[in-house]
Write a structure and sequence with these properties.
By secondary structure, the chain is α+β, with helices and mostly antiparallel strands. It is 33% helix and 20% strand.
Length: 344
């Protein structure tokens, strides 16, 4: 078990350092709300009822609603200023007989374990309580809420049991209590006799949760029959945790769009300008001799006896050659079709 609270039992002038552990747990079968069609989990989001925006956890505060609909907002700073004198101690107030406590007051039970340095004082309080037949009435603050509690012994361990405050127990105001209902003595004797015949020592191990066992059988039968659904894994996009993170992500996305590749037309014009500039400098991409352009080049290939392959230059390649030729002659590039007609 994992401890959920650390503090000390304040018993007169004695301080006993202890840890608390949850003594009970629920054995209910846990279900998830899913979409009937595909088994996808149903998710709930914290959405503001005014602007419809999803609210991050750090922006959520406690609100006390007034009868007129107005809201009093309490921040963490407001809650921190509240006095909790027993925040780290189980303060024993007095002792009382155990049979004077109404079980309706019992709330939650916790095992109390001593720290190494408090083992002897812990055993002393435990043995004294067990011998006296009384329980200790104490106050303790758990999860920022102060509660009334009792300390009692169970199987050699101290048990802290939180109690409800008296104003948290509802009154049993029912109309039949005002009626004068007569009970016959003979009926009362028969009911008492029936109770006596059904009286046995209580053994909790004799009882079990039949509904939970039947529900588990239904689930296991579906598993064996492969009557199950494998929901698709949905990609969960990470949401910005704050406004600053959202602005940074938006700025990075905007810069990425500006640094993207230029449109095709702009890239073509840039390539033409670069080819013309290099041709003028005479370093690379300049005009080639006329014998190596157009149809005369093909005739030369025939004279050498080599099978010339048809030219499959792309439109971009032809444009680059025409641009280079125009740079040499100072004229506009001539379309390829006109060059073929003049040559013929």
């Amino acid at each position: 078990m994992r401890s959920m609270w650390k503090g000390a039992i304040s018993f007169g002038l004695v301080m006993i350092p202890v840890k608390l552990y949850a003594a009970t747990e629920q054995k209910d079968i846990a279900f998830r709300q899913v979409h009937r069609e595909d088994g996808g989990r149903i998710r709930f989001r914290r959405v503001c009822s005014i602007d419809g925006a999803e609210v991050p956890y750090e922006d959520i505060a406690k609100g006390f609603e007034l009868p007129g609909g107005e809201m009093v907002v309490l921040t963490d700073e407001d809650m921190a200023e509240l006095p909790l004198p027993t925040s780290k101690s189980i303060e024993v107030l007095h002792f009382t007989p155990a049979d004077q406590l109404d079980p309706i007051l019992f709330n939650r039970s916790y095992y109390v374990e001593p720290e190494t340095s408090g083992g002897r004082a812990y055993a002393l309080l435990r043995d004294a309580l067990e011998r006296s037949g009384r329980v200790a009435i104490a106050q303790v603050a758990l999860r920022q809420r102060e509660s009334l509690a009792t300390l009692r012994t169970r199987d050699g361990v101290l048990v802290l049991e939180t109690l409800l405050w008296p104003d948290e127990v509802r009154s049993a105001d029912f109309p039949f209590l005002d009626d004068d209902i007569d009970v016959r003595p003979q009926e009362l004797r028969m009911a008492t006799s029936l109770i006596d015949s059904m009286t046995v020592d209580f053994d909790p191990e004799e009882y079990h949760d039949g509904y939970r066992e039947a529900l588990l059988e239904v689930v296991e039968a579906k598993i064996e029959g492969r009557d199950i659904v494998q929901p698709e894994t949905a990609e969960v996009s990470e949401q910005p945790s704050s406004l600053a993170d959202a602005l940074k992500a938006s700025l990075a996305a905007a810069r990425g769009d500006q640094g993207a590749a230029e449109p095709p037309q702009r890239r073509t014009r840039s390539a033409k300008a670069g080819a013309a500039t290099k041709g003028a400098d005479g370093k690379s991409g300049g005009a080639k001799p006329a014998a190596k352009r157009g149809r005369p080049g093909k005739e030369t290939a025939k004279d050498t006896g080599k099978g010339a392959q048809p030219a499959r230059a792309s439109r971009t390649g032809r444009s680059g050659k025409d641009a280079s030729a125009a740079e040499d002659t100072g004229q506009e590039p001539t379309p390829q079709r006109r060059t073929r007609r003049r040559a013929s």
